[in-house]
Specification:
The chain is an alpha+beta fold and 116 residues long. The chain is 37% helix and 20% strand. It has helices at residues 5-17, 66-84, 101-111, and strands at 28-33, 38-44, 49-55, 90-92. Strands 3-2-1-4 form a four-stranded mixed β-sheet. A hairpin with a 4-residue loop joins strand 2 (38-44) and strand 3. Helix 2 runs parallel beside helix 3. The longest helix has 19 residues, at 66-84. The protein is globular.
Length: 116
């Protein structure tokens, strides 16, 4: 039985989501990576709401590689989190490897002041 790459990632994501959930004090920083860009949001799972979000679409003028772009998205998300009054979160890599763009986004968010 062969599974597609997407199905395997979603299976990993479901497995991780059994262990990781966000609260109002420590929301879940969830990452979505597409071929063209990267999106991130802070989610309070108890209330079922998104507290802050950032995407590569907001940083369209930014030149550089997709990894640089991801770091910028992380910094943008950290700034939005500060505005929303959030300084700590739990990182949900959504079944992606902690490598490349996902790692760059996490490090950008840490640089911006988010703790996880």
């Amino acid at each position: 039985m062969s599974t597609s790459v997407r199905e395997a990632r979603l299976r990993r994501h479901r497995r991780v989501r059994g262990k990781v959930s966000g609260t109002a004090e420590r929301p879940r920083l969830v990452v979505f990576r597409s071929n063209r860009g990267i999106f991130a949001q802070l989610v309070d799972d108890e209330a079922g709401r998104t507290l802050a979000s950032a995407s590569w679409l907001a940083n369209r003028g930014h030149k550089g590689t997709k990894t640089d772009q991801a770091a910028e998205v992380g910094k943008t998300l950290a700034a939005a989190a500060k505005k929303a009054g959030v300084e700590a979160c739990v990182f949900d890599r959504a079944g992606y490897l902690y490598h490349g763009r996902v790692k760059a986004l996490a490090e950008g968010a840490r640089e911006g002041g988010l703790k996880f």
